[in-house]
UniProtKB/TrEMBL annotation:
InterPro entries: PyrdxlP-dep_de-COase, PyrdxlP-dep_Trfase, PyrdxlP-dep_Trfase_major, Pyridoxal-P_BS. Keywords: Decarboxylase, Lyase, Pyridoxal phosphate. The keyword Flavoprotein does not apply. Homodimer. This is Glutamate decarboxylase. GO terms for biological process: gamma-aminobutyric acid biosynthetic process. It comes from the Eukaryota. The modification N6-(pyridoxal phosphate)lysine is found at K255.
């Protein structure tokens, strides 16, 4: 193999070299906390969360037993209860656990729903079981499908439900696909709605979907990895109205709430199901005759063994800012996004993919002057398709900003702007618009 400056040597390096390694590492990292980094749903660097992560590393303990994480276990219970209160479950009653990201939280939801539908699958496996069928919108996050693949449901039995022109799940299509699955001898068991889709920021109609789930007796999960945090704002929580009716919810505080990576929770309305699904009672960890109440041990609910402490940083942030501070944070990001929408509406050459988006995501094209005269059609679209990647390439070469782009179905590449960095200001938005215009006219 070629020798490389990152290679690890036989001999130890001195302190000076190690410090210089740290500096060089940071130098070549992408500055995700920069006020003009708009590339991801998780951006920014909350100083309190950072301090929390430092303390977490200092304490360096494992979350699986109360025995070695007494304080953090209590904090986890308090924070999970707070999240459940925001969902609207009475007194924050229910269950949950912190998981390594939203994809894993979604996996938990499907696993618990599957166990609830056919409890003996835990022991007997899926062979000879009825053919389970689950439903999710075509706009949902890919991790829902992957959970179906991993849990033996099979991708053929993960049915894509159509979305309307605002990117929301069509309830009529959902109901007709459930009927179709039943007619074909399948056993529907699970529906995933999304609160804040990854690309368009759409909110599926939770109340209407809950009606369908109740009618057919299906587990109702809402993937609120991105949009769940709107619940902490009395101004914006209506986006998730009806959410108290779900059986489970994924919520990623490492996205909109600004906790540093990773911080994601799976919340489950009915206590006991997580444990029933996952517990194997390893006797070297979960001795029943410990000298404390062993129901404090959370480890046997998890699909992991060792578990990182993801809660302390969030607890510390919430404690420091209070409910009011968390609300101000969300409301500020929403107003930055509204401001960007206004700029897109008012600036020549900018076109929305979706007019008046209801959430943080603002998806748009920049149409350079030399193609503005082209009539709608193939030629215009194929020219437009090249614009966003070229603009992004220039931005990255200069190192000035980062914004994501992507195609969607037949739509040419567009920018997806995310304002989830509290360090961003209105002038940063003004700057971004003129930078896109400037580069867009150069290329
Ligand atoms: C980001 C996202 C996920 C995945 O979360 P990770 O923490 O990246 O695993 C799942 N669902 C939605 C809607 C998301 O936006």
């Amino acid at each position: 193999m070629m020798s490389h400056c990152l290679d690890i040597q036989d001999d130890p390096q001195n302190l000076e070299q190690v410090l210089s390694d740290c500096k060089e590492t940071l130098k070549y990292c992408v500055k995700t906390a920069h006020p003009r980094f708009f590339n991801q749903l998780s951006t920014g660097l909350d100083i309190i969360a950072l301090a929390g992560e430092w303390l977490t590393a200092t304490a360096n303990t494992n979350m699986f037993t109360y025995e070695i994480a007494p304080v953090f276990t209590l904090m986890e219970d308090i924070v999970l209860t707070k999240l459940r209160e925001h969902i609207g479950w009475p007194n924050g009653h229910g269950d949950g656990i912190f998981a390594p990201g939203g994809a894993i939280s979604n996996l938990y939801a499907v696993a618990v729903a599957r166990h609830t539908k056919i409890p003996d699958s835990k022991v007997k496996g899926m062979t000879g079981q009825p053919r389970l069928v689950m439903f999710t919108s075509e706009m949902s996050h890919f991790s829902i499908k992957r959970a179906g693949a991993l849990l033996g449901i099979g991708l053929d039995n993960v049915i894509n439900i159509k979305a309307d022109d605002r990117g929301r799940m069509s309830v009529e299509d959902l109901e007709s696909r459930i009927e179709q699955a039943l007619a074909e001898g399948g056993v529907p068991f699970f529906v995933a709605a999304t609160a804040g889709t990854t690309v368009l920021g759409a909110f599926d109609p939770i109340n209407d979907i809950a009606d369908v789930c109740e009618k057919y007796g299906l587990w109702f999960h809402v993937d609120g990895a991105w949009g769940g945090s709107a619940l902490v704002s009395p101004t914006h929580k209506h986006l998730l109205s009806g959410v108290h009716r779900v059986n489970s919810m994924t919520w990623n505080p490492h996205k909109l709430l600004g906790a540093v990576l990773q911080c994601s929770a799976i919340l489950i309305r009915e206590p006991g199901l997580l444990e029933a699904t996952n517990s194997l009672k390893a006797d070297y960890l979960f001795q029943p005759d410990k000298h404390y109440d062993v129901s404090y041990d959370t480890g046997d609910k998890a699909i992991q063994c060792g578990r990182h402490n993801d809660v302390f940083k969030l607890w510390l942030m919430w404690r420091a800012k209070g409910d009011r501070g968390m609300q101000i944070h969300i409301d500020h990001l929403m107003s930055l996004s509204r401001y960007l929408q206004k700029k897109v509406r008012q600036t020549d050459g900018f076109e929305f993919v979706l007019e008046n988006p209801e959430f943080i995501n603002v998806c748009f094209w920049y149409v350079p002057k030399n193609i503005r005269h082209l009539p709608p059609g193939k030629e215009r679209e194929s020219e437009l398709h090249k614009v966003a990647p070229r603009i992004k390439a220039r931005m990255m070469e200069k190192g000035s900003t980062m914004v994501g782009y992507q195609p969607m179905g037949k739509l040419p590449n567009f920018f997806r702007m995310i304002n989830s960095n509290p360090a961003s200001t209105y002038p940063d938005i003004d700057w971004l618009i003129s930078e896109i215009e400037r580069i867009g006219e150069e290329i």
